[in-house]
Specification:
The chain is of the alpha/beta class. It is built from 20 helices and 25 strands. The strands form seven sheets. It has a five-stranded parallel sheet, with helices on both faces. Mean pLDDT is 91; it is low at 1-5.
């Protein structure tokens, strides 16, 4: 049915959308996971029964409309079934990162007052269960796999997921009840790091996610043509990007979702599954490009020549300087190099949508040259998260993040800040009116990003007002939080962490004067003292927050050297001018 028209109904909520698709698709495969070396599927009908059964079980446990349920799991079919069941029960999903520490879980459980938590594995339960001990409202722990806990906490009852999804709940009853849920009703709380430190719960309503989904459907239907779409899910489902684009968007178009085994097996899974759409982050493309370049470099000769010509021809095409003399070579490339590369990506890739962090235009052009459509998007959790996306109909420009999505207003403030309005804008931060007031103004979301609209209405991002660090896989890290913990150590007087668009954090440390005096003339001893302090801090940080390496500052940050503001805040730009090269060099070791 390639090229067929796809119209997405204006659903009242995500659950009704799912049940509608499940009724139409019946026993066709929906969710796939590899077990015992074989891909095994769960049909739409079976998923609907499990959603209804788990929803009924949650109600039987005493959960009521509006109660929050935390979900801690790696990507797998049970993740999406649990998410939908929580909403079908009238409750609110609280996804949590699998990298969270006990302290992170404790904050989210306490802030959300989650009454129950669903956790998948023994490893993920280890940092979670101690947090439940301090959560006065959390009374139920539901495990997807078998979990050995030793002494169970008295504050919560344990339940096994399989016992709760195996009932004979009335699917039709939940279909009818779901229709009463409105688009502005709360669907989930997604916690994201703010510049102030503690993660804030973004209140995502059903309409917010549906708005995003409808925009995605508009692109697929009008720019590519709809077929039986196949998705490969590997980005964390707890991230808004994957939650909307990799879970609920496939539901909207009746697609199949395969859950990747691991990042290490991703390339093999892509070749095996043959996805038509993938939601990805720039880091993946950078890794794949580097791997492809090394392979072709080893082959040399014809392979290297073809690669150079492919990139050269695409660059000319991109800059509007196509040469008719290149047409024969372009045709040859389509049946040789491009065909081979496409097969490595399954052979039927329709679009790879990049988001979560900025995409280097050269990387995007490389994959375009290989015949793989690259769409860079832009957004943030507070906007569902998709605000804009490149699309062929508007002309793909790698230096932009495309035009705003369907039914999305964008304006540029006097200071250049990108502001967004529409159903995609969050209702606010959960129990945090102060931060909410700072980013919401008369229905407009103040993104904290600076940019402009080009002559075709595409968004060009030029800077970031906020200090939030975005790692190369799209993870958000609050530098102030990490710096604050570092400077609590007696050995460290001042600190600045660094890592935007990088794989991890590194730091610039100013030693405490007493520690510096103690190790005067003994640089190795000073480094060891600071290293021990960093190791202590890392024990309490999540994986994405850990400081992997550091350098020692030449002098303290002061107002005189312009590294501090009069209000004693560090000037990252000024510090970067002095230490940027040395910090960047830490990634080459």
């Amino acid at each position: 049915m390639a090229g067929a028209t796809l119209q997405l109904e204006h659903f009242p909520n995500l659950v009704t959308m799912f049940f509608t698709r499940a009724r139409a698709k019946g026993d066709k495969p929906f969710l796939w996971a590899k077990k015992d070396g074989e891909w095994q599927s769960i049909s739409w009908a079976k998923a609907a029964r499990q959603v209804a059964s788990l929803a009924q079980s949650l109600r039987d446990l005493g959960l009521k409309k509006g109660d929050r349920v935390m979900l801690v799991s790696e990507n797998r079919p049970e993740w999406l079934i649990s998410d939908l069941a929580i909403m079908a029960a009238g409750c609110v999903t609280v996804p949590a990162y699998t990298t969270n520490t006990t302290r992170d879980h404790q904050h989210i459980l306490g802030n959300s007052d989650a009454r129950a938590v669903i956790v998948s594995t023994q490893n993920l339960a280890k940092p979670l269960i101690p947090a439940v001990l301090f959560a006065s409202e959390c009374h139920h722990i539901i495990s997807i796999d078998d979990i050995i806990t030793g002494q169970s906490p008295d504050v919560a009852q344990f339940h096994h997921w399989s016992d709760l999804v195996g009932g004979d709940a009335d699917v039709i009853k939940f279909e009818e009840e779901a229709k009463k849920v409105k688009r502005d009703d709360l669907a989930c709380l997604i916690y994201t790091s703010g510049t102030g430190g503690a993660p804030r719960g973004v209140m995502q309503h059903h309409g917010m996610i549906l708005h995003n989904v409808e925009g995605c459907v508009d692109i697929i239907a009008n720019d590519f043509g709809w077929d039986e779409e196949v998705f490969l899910s590997f980005l964390p489902a707890s991230h808004a990007y994957e939650h909307t684009g990799g879970q609920h968007f496939p539901v909207a178009i009746g697609g199949e979702i395969y859950y990747a085994e691991s990042l290490e097996k991703l390339a093999a899974n892509i070749e095996d599954v043959k996805p038509t759409i993938m939601v990805v982050v720039p880091r993946l493309f950078e890794m794949l490009r580097a791997k492809m370049l090394k392979t072709i470099e080893k082959e040399g000769g014809l392979a290297a020549y073809l690669l150079d010509r492919a990139v050269s021809i695409e660059a000319k095409r991109y800059h509007g300087k196509s040469n008719p003399l290149d047409l024969p070579m372009d045709g040859l490339l389509s049946v040789t190099l491009r065909k081979k590369v496409k097969q490595k990506f399954g052979g039927r890739m329709k679009a790879m949508v990049s988001g979560g962090a900025p995409l280097n235009p050269d990387v995007g052009l490389f994959f375009q040259a290989m015949g793989l459509p690259m769409l860079q998007g832009y957004g943030q959790t507070e906007a569902g998260p998709v605000i804009s996306c490149n699309r062929p109909a508007a002309g793909i420009r790698m230096e932009t993040v495309g035009p705003p999505m369907r039914n999305t207003e964008v304006r540029i403030a006097e200071d250049g800040e990108i502001c967004v309005k529409g159903e995609l804008v969050m209702q606010g931060y959960w129990r945090n009116p102060e931060d909410t007031a700072r980013v919401l103004s008369d229905g407009w979301l103040l993104t904290g990003d600076v940019g402009h609209l080009d002559d075709k209405g595409r968004i060009v991002i030029t800077d970031r007002k906020k200090d939030l660090i975005v790692l190369d896989k799209g993870d958000n890290v609050s530098p102030q939080r990490v710096e604050g913990i570092l400077t609590l150590q007696s050995e460290i007087a001042q600190a600045m962490v660094y890592g935007d668009r990088r794989p991890n954090l590194v730091a610039l440390l100013v030693p405490d004067p007493e520690v510096l005096a103690k190790h005067k003339g003994d640089e190795e001893g000073l480094r060891k003292a600071l290293s021990k302090a960093v190791d202590r801090v890392n024990k309490d940080l999540s994986v994405i927050e850990k400081v992997r390496r550091f350098i020692i500052a030449d002098e303290p940050f002061t107002t005189d050297n312009e590294m501090l503001t009069p209000s004693m805040k560090i000037r990252r730009h000024k510090i970067g001018e002095v230490y940027g090269d040395r910090l960047a060099a830490l990634y080459k070791r």
